[in-house]
């Protein structure tokens, strides 16, 4: 049942402290300062990694590929439905990773089978034990999020991001993981709980019920979060929403920005990325758009915002997950105010088993 929540989606959003704790359970050796992923003990470090996935899982793939590239491992992410036509070269030493919550998505399975038939090693990052992806891939890493009923993926996306971190540390063959990352993972469940307890997302959406469209912007690791924020929003509110790389605005999307298009901007830390995104925030503000900033307060982004969704300070790899929780709540509360069918949005299925 829904345990007292109005919707499975809200219940699953609130389960995240527990589902993330479960994902990390036994996988952090704090004393030794490293990540333990027993099921991947046989996996040898690949020379390059190719992620394939759809929808929300594709956004997790963009994030995962960015982490690997940051560590010097060539990595790309392809939409599974585009894999056949993209036909990427899979030279020796390529690992193809399918990220799929259900483990049953037809597009993802077909990309994984194609990769397998071309001799690549395959790995499934999935939530469902014994799923098709888990059975057919050479390796499997479970995200242990527990069953997700809502069509909109929420807790599984958060666990995919953490699964990506576990995978990356493992693939790098690292004997130690940075202390900051280990501590941020340890503090993650309580930081998520703090957001759930204090979020003002419900009040904020009330201000913007009659807008023309809703935009989400982010840079670097927050770009996949911008895409995910918009996907969740459009799935359950049926309103037009788009996610953009913050720097792409002036290459086209800025033409759509008006006083009637709220822009959700994700800005954490106080580095070059943050500074540049704040520049993009000023661009949309100059066009009269309401700006809602998701921030940890380290920069002065709030100065340019009409509303602020606050997240705790954490490791830069964990911040996208925290920011996304606020955007999950934004999508949920907006859909709820509009009276949409949140757990079963029109035209959508939980698991897409046709190509
Ligand atoms: O089960 P999968 O992770 O393979 O599903 C992929 C997509 O169909 C899925 O993420 C879809 O985009 C969700 N409805 C997003 O909320």
From TrEMBL:
Repeat among the record's keywords? yes
Q: Which reaction does it catalyse?
A: D-fructose 6-phosphate + L-glutamine = D-glucosamine 6-phosphate + L-glutamate
Q: Name one GO cellular component term.
A: cytoplasm
UniProt keywords (A-Z) are: Aminotransferase, Cytoplasm, Glutamine amidotransferase, Repeat, Transferase
Question: Where located?
Answer: Cytoplasm
Q: Active site at which residues? A: 350
Coiled coil regions in record: none
| Record carries keyword Cytoplasm | yes
The alphabetized list of GO BP terms reads:
carbohydrate metabolic process; fructose 6-phosphate metabolic process; protein N-linked glycosylation; UDP-N-acetylglucosamine metabolic process
Q: Which GO terms describe its molecular function?
A: carbohydrate derivative binding; glutamine-fructose-6-phosphate transaminase (isomerizing) activity
EC assignment: the record states 2.6.1.16
- Domain (SIS) ranges: 36-177, 204-345
Top-tier EC class: transferase
**Main location per UniProt?**
cytoplasm
Oligomer and partners: Homodimer.
Function of the molecule: Catalyzes the first step in hexosamine metabolism, converting fructose-6P into glucosamine-6P using glutamine as a nitrogen source.
What protein am I looking at? Glutamine--fructose-6-phosphate aminotransferase [isomerizing]
What organism does this protein naturally occur in? Halogranum amylolyticum
In the UniProt record, what gene is named as encoding this protein?
glmS
